[in-house]
């Protein structure tokens, strides 16, 4: 379903030409995660009250989710345990 000029929502993901992004996600809360991503992408453009692409995707997937449920979380990454020589060399191939 075309929800925005550049945003196409499909069964388990979406593709967005504006942000050059395609995400497919599977699992229990997959569509809620996808909705959250769509909201975060388009909220700066539409404002926080009514984000049309979010509402469109919600309707397509048949999910009741209020925008207030989209809560950003702090991303905590652990230090890498292993690193390859290619990464150390900056990805150059000899």
TrEMBL record:
Query: Could you name the domain of life of the organism this protein comes from?
Result: Archaea
**Start and end residues of each PH1570-like domain:** 1-87
Task: Show the Pfam families listed in the entry.
Answer: Ph1570
- Mind telling me which InterPro entries this protein's record contains? PH1570-like_domain, PH1570-like_sf
Protein name in the entry: PH1570-like domain-containing protein
Q: Which organism is it from?
A: Thermococcus litoralis (strain ATCC 51850 / DSM 5473 / JCM 8560 / NS-C)
């Amino acid at each position: 379903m075309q929800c925005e000029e550049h945003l196409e929502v499909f069964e388990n993901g979406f593709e967005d030409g504006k942000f050059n992004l395609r995400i497919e996600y599977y699992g229990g809360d997959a569509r809620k995660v996808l909705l959250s991503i769509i909201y975060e992408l388009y909220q700066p453009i539409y404002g926080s009250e009514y984000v049309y692409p979010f509402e469109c995707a919600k309707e397509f997937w048949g999910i009741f989710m209020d925008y207030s449920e989209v809560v950003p979380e702090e991303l905590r990454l652990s230090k890498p345990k292993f690193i390859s020589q290619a990464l150390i060399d900056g990805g150059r191939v000899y």
